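ok so i was messing around last nite and threw this chain in just to see what happens. nothing serious, just curious
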Amino acid sequence: MPIFSCLNHVFHVLLMCYEYKNIMEVKAMNESMLDRLKSMENRFEELGHMLMDPDIGSDIKKMTEVTKEQSSLQAAYDLYQEYKEVEAGISDAKELAKENDPEIKEMAKMELEELETRMPEIISKLEVELIPKDPNDNKNVIMEIRGAAGGDEGNIFAGDLYRMYVKYCESQGWKIDVLEADEAEAGGYSLISFNVIGDDVYGKLKYESGSHRVQRVPKTETQGRVHTSTATVLVMPEMEEVDVQINKNDLRIDTYRASGAGGQHINKTDSAVRITHLPTGIVAASQDGRSQHDNKDKAMKTLIARVYDYYQSQQTEAIDSERKSKVGTGDRAEKIRTYNYPQNRVTDHRIGLTIQQLDRIMDGKLDDIITALINEDQRLKLEGQK
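result:
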């Protein structure tokens, strides 16, 4: 019996050590999270002081940068303040629960239960807010939509996608500036490139890169058969020249007479501009601007984004397979979504989401799809899969 008693004692000591080790690990993890939250809080308040600095107030570019950074921290800051309030409330309720008065003890118990129920949800939201952000999420974007498989129908679908994105951007309060548009004879576009300007544009639109497939009866189909066509979408963060090193000697700039819509003036002068980046062979052109100078600026903006995307893709492919994950791969060859007109259905293949409201989606109501993609992306990052 003494042996069994001794073994039992040893077992309990080991169990207590194991439990203590786990508690300390959890505590250390919480302390690490709290340290990050305190750093975030300090940075948010520092940015607030910077916005009151007259020197920054007179520098529009710097003020915009500071405002955007503070705005990106707002949700985490507010949640952290709520966390501290609830934590203080729990501490106060525990103290009140020690009182002798039965009514006070009961009130304290009810308060404690309510606050302790709220705490896990706040911590979960904070974990999401502390997921490392893509540094490009706050940037404007340059989007390119191209008609692909299906000939005329692919180009027509490219036009439909463009109008869908225009409506979505308008609902978000974003501005659109067309950079390049090659209208197709049968309608739509063989290529349309446009700048989207606003808050958190890349963070929401980056998941749209890929091949979009449409299944419907084309207007030219006389026997009512359903055809499958595709259009590709590319979403690139708009980069400043300082973000992408481009040697001016590596550029060839050609001017030529614009064609297509634009009025008589545009067709009588060499206002269109084509810029070629010689090391990569990447070309960007613009003919829709009001002047040659305007077209040069637009073409250069597109070129910088394309060159950045080119080098970023090479680097990403060499380092890891992040672009091959379920969400936001940006692989132009991947069929990310199908738009089935006969069944009024949209399916996003990356997350298995099907919505039986194609008409609403094509009217620019993309919030459900984009929110689902963001949530899946966050889930994978929390699980360490991205």
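not much to say yet. The chain has a mean pLDDT of 79.
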